[in-house]
Amino acid sequence: MKVYVDRFEEDFVVLVGIDMRFGVDVKRELISFPLHEGDVLEAEFSENEEFISAKFLPEETEKRREKYKAMMERLRRKK
Predict the structure, then answer these.
(1) 3-state SS, residue 57
(2) Taking the complete model, does pTM exceed 0.85, yes or no?
(3) In angstroms, rounded to a whole number, what is the distance separating the alpha carbons of residues 74 and 76?
(4) C-alpha to C-alpha distance for 39 and 4, rounded to whole angstroms
(5) Dist. CA 52–CA 48, nearest whole Å
(6) Per-residue pLDDT of the chain (79 residues; tens, 9 = 90+)
(7) CB burial of residue 12 (10 Å; 0-12, 13-18, 19+)
(8) Is the Cα torsion angle 7, 28, 31, 23 positive or negative in sign?
(9) What is the enclosing helix (H) or strand (E) of 59?
(10) 41, burial (CB in 10 Å: exposed 0-12, middle 13-18, buried 19+)
(11) Which residues contact 24 (CB under 8 A, 6 or more apart)?
């Protein structure tokens, strides 16, 4: 399931589904690579919605960042 890093809260990473239909807190220590807000991941969860694993998706992350960067530029031009 594709998710993105929404924010960090203490020892947790808040992951939100790309479709924004759900969010889940995952202990930072369960993810073995550095994370940044906005990173897109392919995450695996158990049937009980427990975090199993995640893989960083660099191409998806870049696309998402470019999309929101363009949106912010359009909003700035409207002022």
Answers:
(1) coil
(2) yes
(3) 5
(4) 5
(5) 11
(6) 999 999 999 999 999 999 888 899 999 999 999 999 999 999 999 998 899 999 999 999 999 999 989 999 999 988 6
(7) middle
(8) negative
(9) helix 58-77
(10) buried
(11) 3, 14, 15, 45, 49, 51
Tokens 């998806």 appear where?
A: 60
| pLDDT score recorded for residue 4 | 96
70-76 contact pairs (CB < 8 A, 24+): none
Dihedral, 66, 52, 27, 42 alpha carbons, nearest 10: 0
Alpha-carbon distance 30 to 41, whole Å? 14
Tokens describing residue 77: 């031009």
- From CA 2, how far away is CA 62, in angstroms rounded? 14
